[in-house]
Design a protein that fits this description.
Number of helices: 11
Mean pLDDT: 87
Distance between the termini: 52 Å
Low-confidence stretches: 1-35, 38-60
Strand content: under 5%
Number of strands: 2
Structural class: mainly alpha
Largest sheet: 2 strands, antiparallel
Order of helices and strands: HHHHHHHHHEEHH
């Protein structure tokens, strides 16, 4: 792991659809060549190709076993698919600028200065960004395919691909103006940092408790997590602030999925839907802990956005304070279900009531959708409301009123 560099203070696509536009991503020559974990495993296990036939039989059996998929279970998967499409969209933007460019996640050519700023936190950041992107693409592709295989409508956000995104060197110009998410005006809630270190409070039991922000300045005003243009890469201190912002955005997003999947699983009736939610959810937890660890390496600095005048300060996180110390990335035991029971290390929150709408409000409040149309919010709100109306045990052919 690379040693953190102290910076001086300053005063001043969904990736999965095979449309003609997305096919343009495959024509870009890779900037860097790495062997990802999937490519390595795929080559190493080629000798097992004879098992493909058995896999197809398993797929057929799975489709047969899930024919009773009804409206409530479909609503859960459809909302999850929509969120995974959104995740894939912004991870693709990060990968274009600072991830590994290969046949798994093609499309960009990389931005050397931004990549190096992220590598201050860890030299393997491009590989981590690439693999997280690949995961989110696989999630929405699988969820939508499963829905369609069982006669249910998939999530479709293609009509809302209208945002411009970065115009800095390295982005896929074919996707300029076709983004779903906005990474340039973020307001990031970093209270998850202290929530997972607090051994006395759980938002499920203390919904009114305010967990402290570990980076308070990110929780106000609007901050960019990617260079908006090449001018943003000319000041090393401000560019490092952009990279630090991205480093905290990564786990902020992933801890949301970390909570959402088990919350939705509690509403599932169909056994396969339950299995899907409980199988994808832990991968979000893996992402969360990886990024929480990397965010702790963000160098201490102060910077001012030359375009907006917004100030940001990243504190020293190597402190003898259980709520702050960057090394304490394991979830601290906390109250769960009943305060009279012993504390236990758990995901929090996992309260299922209003979980989908809560996730949507969280992402909206972050500024991730600034510039989107009213129709976009209406569509996602409808999916969230349907997911929240799903009730385990009512029969999976309808939604609760």
């Amino acid at each position: 792991m690379r040693t953190c560099i102290q910076q001086p203070a300053s005063g001043s696509n969904d990736g999965g659809n095979h449309s003609p536009d997305n096919n343009l991503e495959r024509d870009i020559k890779p900037r860097r060549r790495f062997i990802s974990r999937r490519l390595f495993l795929g080559r190493s296990l080629a000798i097992g190709a004879g098992t493909i036939g058995a896999g197809l039989v398993g797929t057929s059996r799975a489709a047969s076993e899930s024919r009773d998929l009804g409206a409530g279970d479909a609503a859960l998967l459809r909302f999850a698919a929509a969120l995974e499409i959104l995740e894939a969209d912004f991870w693709i933007q990060y990968n274009e600028l600072a991830g590994v460019q290969d046949s798994e996640v093609p499309g960009g050519s990389g931005n050397k200065a931004y990549t190096e700023a992220l590598e201050v936190l860890d030299e393997d950041m491009p590989i981590y960004i690439h693999d997280n992107t690949d995961d989110e693409i696989s999630h929405h592709q699988f969820l939508n395919a499963y829905l369609e295989a069982n006669g249910q409508a998939p999530a479709n956000l293609d009509p809302f691909r209208t945002l411009v995104g970065s115009r800095a060197t390295g982005v896929n110009e074919a996707l300029a103006g076709r983004r779903l998410t906005n990474l340039t005006q973020l307001t990031i809630d970093t209270s998850w940092w202290t929530r997972y270190r607090d051994d006395s409070h759980n938002p499920d039991l203390d919904p009114g408790f305010a967990f402290p922000q570990v980076v308070p300045t990110l929780g106000v005003n609007q901050h960019t997590a990617i260079p908006r243009n090449d001018a943003d890469t000319t000041d090393p201190n401000f560019l490092q602030a952009i990279a630090n912002t991205a480093a905290f955005h990564f786990p902020t997003i992933e801890q949301g999925g970390n909570s959402l999947y088990p919350s939705m699983a509690l509403r599932a009736t169909n056994q396969q839907v339950l299995r899907i939610l409980l199988s994808i959810g832990p991968t979000e937890t893996m992402h969360f802990q990886t990024w929480a660890d990397k965010a702790g390496n963000a160098p201490e600095l102060q910077a001012v956005d030359p375009m907006t005048g917004v100030f940001v300060e990243f504190p020293d996180l190597e402190k003898d304070d259980e709520l702050i110390n960057k090394s304490l990335i394991m979830p601290e035991p906390c109250p769960f279900l009943d305060k009279n029971l012993p504390a236990v290390s758990v995901i929090r929150p996992t309260n299922t009531q209003g979980a989908a709408m809560g996730a949507l409000k969280f992402l909206t409040g972050m500024g991730l959708f600034i510039g989107q149309s009213p129709a976009f919010f209406e569509y996602l709100s409808r999916l969230a409301q349907q997911a929240d109306r799903a009730r385990r045990g009512l029969g999976n052919d309808r939604l609760d009123d």
